[in-house]
Amino acid sequence: MTITMNKLKLYFVHYMHPEVISKLLIATMFLTLISATLITILSAFLQKSNKPVFVTLLFAAVFFVACIFISRFGNQPINKIIMTWTANSFPENWSILRDKWWSFHIMRTIAELLALFLVASSCTRTLNHLPGLAKTTPPRC
Q: Which of 64, 114, 117, 136 would staple 37 via disulfide (CB 3.0–4.6 Å)?
């Protein structure tokens, strides 16, 4: 049995409602953020002897947790309100909700980028502290 693009489109149009897709995307995002947070915390404790890396990873974990809270208590309540709207029932204050959602989105994005930057910088600090790596010189091209 082959699945054609038309059959796939038909399935999504008729059986996958926007609410279901939205819930799947939210669940995927939270699972990813929770996994990133737990892995970052685990990595921090594995680097406990290297204090700068340990502290950097803990800060990264705090920023990942901030992402979770911003999404859960900032963006999601607004998303739930928006999902009740129809093309005919737009409230007059829709732009206020849009601006609030956008502010939460910017805060969440900055927190995620800071967390990822801290994780990446901790990786370079870890590599610089490995025995033997600091003494070797890179090969010439």
A: 64
Q: Are 57 and 43 in contact (CB under 8 A)?
A: yes
For the chain, give the number of residues.
141
> What is the chain's mean pLDDT, rounded?
83
Query: Residue 13 has what pLDDT?
Result: 59
Cα atoms found within 13 Å of the Cα of residue 42, Cβ hemisphere only = 6
Please tell me the predicted confidence (pLDDT) of residue 57: 96
Q: Is 134 helix (H, G, I), strand (E, B) or coil?
A: coil
CA–CA gap between residue 15 and residue 26 (Å, rounded): 19
> Does an H or E element contain 94, and which?
helix 94-128
**Measured distance CA(52)–CA(63) in Å, rounded:** 17
State the Cα–Cα distance between residues 110 and 71, nearest whole angstrom.
13
Distance CA 32, CA 26 (A): 10
**Structure letter (DSSP) for residue 2:** P
Residue 96 class from Cβ within 10 Å (0-12 exposed, 13-18 middle, 19+ buried)? exposed
Q: pLDDT tens digits for 8-25?
A: 566 665 666 667 777 788
Is pLDDT larger for residue 14 or for residue 74?
A: 74
